[in-house]
Structures are given as structure tokens and as C-alpha cells.
Amino acid sequence: MKWYSLPLITAFTLAATMAGAADVANKKAAVAPPPPPKWLDTLTVDGYVEGGVAMNFNQPWNNINWGHLYTIDSNQPIFNGAVLTVMRPLDPKSDHYDFGFKAQIQIGEDMRFNHVIGTTDYWIPSRTQIGPLEANVQAHLPWKSFISEGGVDIKAGIFPTYNGAEVMYAKDNLFYSHSYIFNFGPFLHTGVMTTTHVRDWLDVYAGVTTGVNTFIGYPGDNNAAPAFHGGVGLNLLEGNLTIMGFVHSGPENPKQFGVAYNPDALGLPPGIFPGAWPNTPFACVCNPNSTNRTFANLTTTWKVTENLTLITDMAFNRESGNNPASSLGGIPQNAYGFYNGFFPEFVAAPGWPANALSYLPQYPKGAESYAIAQYASYKINDIFKINGRVEYYRDTANFFVSAPAGYYDAANAFHGYPCPTCFFRSTFDPNAANHGTSYLALTAGMTITPELPKLPIITGMILRPEFRWDTSVNGTTPFFRGLNYNGNGLSRSQGMFNMDVIIPFSLL
User: Fold this and answer.
1) Quick one: signal sequence residues (predicted)?
2) Alpha helix locations (H) across 373-435?
3) pTM value?
């Protein structure tokens, strides 16, 4: 080999090596994962506008659809609301610390029932009101161990309840009208909730709240007592079957208007109400923190096929402080003897035995409801989806189902203030609390998402027409109808056609 050929061989070898190295680098670059998005890259600003109508064939004399909240106003247009959501969601599967938040505000008629008391309850004297649905901060903590293979998530602030199949965010529900389980269960909480991702298929939830639809401190917390909120979530069959069991439990009765919490200082017998007003059936006529209200739900969602989904929602509610005697004007049960002596002409009235008040129960009886709702949804195509719902709801003492129809009725009931325009079964049926009511509700409808031309901001349209029939299956007459049908304006059933239109939008 000539000496001058050595540099050529070296040069070719070096060039081949560099080319090989460059090829390896290119391949590595091709398979390298993309850099994680910046924190604000996942920020979204969106929402929807919703309006509808609830046509009641009974033509109720007071324009109230009994058993409803968001569709409580019969035979008139309803501006359910406009909702704006600003959110930076968490990545619950991240291997790093992650932080987010969610702020959601609503203006509309639904807000009458959605108030977190102590915030915006009395701002607007109208059917249309404003307030927060969510205001919370969130954190994902990659604390992995045997009991938290996926880490832990924390949420603090105002957030919707985890109970039940239906939600407050309208576009995520199958129907316009809501189930009894939703209407008369918890809505919003203020507190802290933790989610521990024990396994891919198991999540455990635990938290503490100020109660149902309550804020922090006076006047936001109506009884200054904490409540527990928690449960378990199962994710099975590769996500096609989910089972969620949740409980919210704690004192919910408000410190009632006019209650003397230090009667000795006023020289009165224990429990006497100075200037008492006629308490609604929500009032326990007791120390509210000595009672407990529990909401429990077990919700199963099964995606049977690509197009068919079945949902089963079971609920049990228990209020330990319900006092049927509270409708007599707020007389505390431990003060019946005092009142028997103070109003002898009352207890001696015709038909009343001596010491009549003493025959009433001396301790709160409590109240319960239990229910089951079965949903079925079949997607025909990208435009049409057929939905059905069958619900049975038993309100044992007519405590839970009510009609807070006025501007401030729901807020007043939560605060414990007088609620003269609230309708309760005991308001128009003196014997209602003795036998309760068993409701059966059948709903059939469609979700229609028509194709729209591309528009700025607006991202689509949702229409949800439905037929609904409610009846009492234990012979009671809880529903309203026109007075021309009968003298008392009550009916055993009501038939309805309801429909709403939702316009989703996105600003970011």
C-alpha cells in the first residue's frame, strides 16, 4: 500500500462514521417525544347558551310544574342560562406536578336554584340571576406508592357534587328535564376533595365541605358544621363500564329564623322561639347541628356497544331532623307542655283532646327517600340520538320534593328565612306527611345535533325534545292542574312536552 493512500482511507472512514452518527441522530430525533405543552397552552374559554319551554298539559293554575326545578315554570319561555367557563385542566396521568383551575359563572333562571348561599344570592330580584357554578384550584401530585399508583389529585373551592348521573352542565345531560334524584339531591359544595388513583381501575375520593350549596362563614354557612363527601370509582372493561358510589353527609338544617339559642338569657323555657315564624317542613325545630342529612348514590354506566349506552342511578337520602309538627308554627317539640298550658283555649277547641300538643311526637321522626332511575341512549348517527328514562322515587314523608318557585325561595330555604311562596306537600295537603308520595316518571326524547355551516365562535347546536309523564303510584295527588278541572287544582299525574336549544361556543 502506498503511503499516500492512507490519508484517503482515513478520510473515507471518518466520513462514513460521521454519516452513520448523523443517521442515528436523525432516527433518535424522529422518535423523540414532543416537548410538553406550556402551562397556558391547554387553557380554554368556552360555554353555552340555553333556553327552552316546558309545556304542561294540565295547565296548572299556579304555573308550577311539580317535581321540577330547571323546568319549574310551565307554558312559558325559559332562559335557562348562559354559562362561561375558563379552565386550565389537570393531566391526571402526568408523572410531574401539575396545577390547574376552573372558574365557571352562570346567568339565567337556573341560577335561582344553583346559588352558593352567601355569594350572589340576592343580587338580582328577577327570575334571571347570576352566580358561580365552579371556582376552584386543582393540583396533581405524582406521589406514587402501593396505595396511589397514579398519584393524587386535589381540588379546593366551589365545585359540583360528585353524586348522581345527571349534572348541572346542561349540554352533558341526555334530557332537558331532570330526574327527581337530581332535582332533590345536592348541587354544589365548598370545600376540599382528594382523588387517589389507587390503580388504573380504582379511584378513591375523600373530602370535607361546608354542606350543600353553602359557602364559608356567615352568612354563607347556614349552620357552621362540616360535612363529609367521598366515594369510590371503578373503571372496568377497558373503560366501557364505570361504577361510581358517592356519599355526602353532614348537618344541613339552617339555624332557623327567630331561634333562641340561649333561652336562659331571655328567661324562656328551653327551645322557645321568641317571635317564631311558621317554619317550613325543612325546619327541624331543633339544634341544627344535632341532625344529619345524608345523600348516597350508586351510578353505573355501561357502554354496551359503540352506539348503545345504559345508565343506572340509585339513590338513598336520609334527614334525621325532620319534624312534622313544625308546620304548626315552629313550636319546639320539647316545649309542647309549656304551650298546652299557655293556650288552653286552643287545645280545648272542638275535636281537640286535652293536652293535644302532647300527643305529637316528642322527637324528630326523620325523613327518607329512595329511588332508582334507568337510562338508555342509542346513537343512530352523528345527528340523532334516542334517549329514554324510567324513574321511581319514594319520598316517605314528603320532605324532599318541593317547589321553590319564587325569585329567592331556594336561597331563603337554605338560609332558614321565611319562604311564603314555597310549595310543600304539607302546604296544600294536611295529611301528606302521614303517607308520603311514590312518584313514577317516564321520559322519552332525542338529542339532535344538526350540521351547521362553519361560524365564528359558535361550535354547534343541540336540540332536546322530550315527552314526559309523571304520576303518583300510591293514590296521592301531588301535581297541579287548572281549577276548572276540580275544586282543589290537584291531580294524580301530569303530562308534558319539553324542549330546549343549546348553543355551545368557544372563545379560546
Assistant:
1) 1-21
2) 409-415, 425-428, 432-435
3) 0.84
